[in-house]
Amino acid sequence: MAEEIIDLTSGLYRFLIAGEATVLAGKRAAEEARAGFLQRASHLSERFQEARRDAGERLDQRLDEISDSLGRVAAELDARRTRTGTLNETWKGLGQQYEALVHHVHEGRLSVSAGVRLEHIKPRNYSRNLFHVGMGLASILAYELLLSRGQMILLGSSLLGMFIIMDILRRYSPYWNEQFVQRAFSLISRPGEAYRIPSATWYLAGLLVGAVFLPKHAVELGALVLAVGDPIASLAGKRWGSVKLLGQKSWAGSGGFVIVAFMATTTFLWLVVPGVGLARAATIGAALALLGAVTELFSRRVDDNLSIPLAVGLLAAILL
Fold first, then answer.
1. Residue 117 belongs to some domain of the structure
2. Are residues 265 and 173 in the same domain?
3. Residue 116 located in a structural domain
4. Could you read off the pLDDT of 38-61 as tens digits, one per residue?
5. What's the rounded Cα separation, in Å, for the pair 13 and 31?
6. Is 119 exposed, middle or buried (0-12, 13-18, 19+ CB in 10 A)?
7. What is the pTM of this model?
8. Residue 30: its pLDDT value, please?
9. Are residues 21 and 170 in the same domain?
10. What is the distance between the alpha carbons of residues 295 and 104, in angstroms, rounded to a whole number?
11. Is 156 helix (H, G, I), strand (E, B) or coil?
């Protein structure tokens, strides 16, 4: 039964990744693509219903919910008049149910075959992208114009402490987990963050470590690469990322990361950092952008909101 659950979980992940563009496109999607996707949804729903018969009591409700959601997705796609809002809400719920199933697999220590990775899903979320850029730029402006190093460390420590307390509350209280993830931060949270440390906590940890150990401009450059590069990688990858580079990471996403991060860091170095001319700014900016993209590409076990600003900040400290 464990092998079947893992196989279904992996199949649901592939279904969610392959179907995101079709669902978000609504009626604009090609009828042929919609028909094929509808068939996959119905087939996967039937497989979950069959698995439910053999599952333990603890999994009964979860498998039922996933099967029902898949059925609703299929029904909406098959309807003569698709209700886009309803379809998107069902799709969002299906992503949350997938992450709950992944959490069950890991929590139950089920044996996962070699070569099978139960990845976290990263649905398209423009609100999250804007928040990501805004939080990064606000941090840079605050450190550059308003806060001393000591004040930055104090503020970062306070915010990080607050987020850690929230994470502890979420871990031990399903009620608070729902309040934080699905209500207070519903516009910017990812489904998997209900079961793991959210990206904002890792970002604050990276910023605080950088403020303690790295020069001011090095910290700001690390935050800048993350702020502009990561959202662009996500947007470009989802729009043009058919050719994969590593796992679900694409050439388009990594290329977009490098280009935008290079432009941002070169501009920052030239205009903000004293004594750095345009040629040197471009050279350092290229190195920082490339390192940021490579770090983002290989950050699997470590959250890239921690690894990117620290890796880029350390290189910036060496080069400046």
1. no
2. yes
3. no
4. 677 777 777 777 766 665 555 666
5. 23
6. middle
7. 0.82
8. 44
9. no
10. 29
11. helix
Residue 257 confidence (pLDDT): 93
Co-location of 96 and 153 in the same domain: no
What is the pLDDT, as a whole number, of residue 118? 67
Task: From residue 214, give the alpha-carbon distance in Å to each of 133, 153, 211, 222, 311.
Answer: 22, 12, 6, 10, 11
What is the spatial distance between Cα 60 and Cα 138, in angstroms, rounded to a whole number? 46
CA angle 24, 235, 136 (to 5 degrees): 125
- 273 versus 80: the higher-pLDDT residue is 273
Q: Angle, to 10 degrees, between the axis of helix 278-298 and the axis of helix 251-271?
A: 140
Q: Give the separation between CA 26 and CA 23, rounded to whole angstroms.
A: 5
Give SS3 for 30. coil
Domain that holds residue 188: 126-319
pLDDT of residue 74 exceeding 80 = no
Handedness of CA 123, 191, 290, 133 (dihedral sign): positive
Cα gap 208→26, rounded to integer Å: 43
Q: Which of 60, 75, 107 is the last residue of a domain?
A: 107
Query: Do 159 and 277 fall into the same domain?
Result: yes
105 compared with 267, residue with greater pLDDT:
267
Write out pLDDT tens, residues 127-143: 888 988 898 999 999 99
Residues 31/109, Cβ–Cβ less than 8 Å:
no
Give the closest residue to 48 by CA, choosing from 87, 36, 78, 40.
40
Residues 9 and 98 in one domain: yes
Which residue would you say has higher pLDDT here, 197 or 185?
197
Residues 98 and 242 in one domain: no
Is 115 part of any domain? Answer: no
CA-angle at 254, arms to 248 and 256, nearest 5°? 125
What angle is formed at CA 267 by the lines to CA 261 and CA 270, rounded to 5 degrees? 135
What is the rounded CA–CA span in Å between residue 25 and residue 29?
5
Token representation of residue 280: 């040197």
Domain membership of residue 113 (yes or no) is: no
